[in-house]
Amino acid sequence: KNQVEQSPQSLIILEGKNCTLQCNYTVSPFSNLRWYKQDTGRGPVSLTIMTFSENTKSNGRYTATLDADTKQSSLHITASQLSDSASYICVVSLDTGRRALTFGSGTRLQVQP
Amino acid sequence: ETGVTQTPRHLVMGMTNKKSLKCEQHLGHNAMYWYKQSAKKPLELMFVYNFKEQTENNSVPSRFSPECPNSSHLFLHLHTLQPEDSALYLCASSQESEAGGASYYEQYFGPGTRLTVT
Known about the structure:
Chain A is mainly beta. In chain A, 0% of the residues lie in helices and 58% in strands.
């Protein structure tokens, strides 16, 4: 069964600190992996998309890594800000169809002053 | 904003009511989606419309009825819902090619409709 597991389920950090969120997947055949940020009461917004041939991609203070061999990805947030408080969702795409997306349950991040 | 709007943002309805959710995308995309997001669960894909044709229906109960009159508008008609249908309903759109291929199409989400069934 295709699955995406994210850890931790929730995380509290102080403003200015760094953090790393994890994503493990069993999806096969793999096409690409995405990280989304979802603010409370809003829809998800894409942060990064990586294909199997990419092992790192940055978007400002967000850096995603991908190890297609171990089927693991991480999202590193540098110098966190209060506005980073949100849920971060890992989404893995199958290479068998245009809309075959498998979603993780997300990591709820809270940045405190 | 993402260019995808949804109305209403909040909806409370009884189990015998009939209501509709509306989604509009201003991005010129040709594919639209309905997702259900329940607390602490992954997003669940409900329906997909590609070039105005419904191409996927992921075993969704018939009390949910989608309608896509054109490539910019998507509706979800609701009737005789159950309390367990209470969730955030998200609409998304993307631009897909007719040739298909690897699923690399970026999806843009609306803000969602928070539905409560009493």
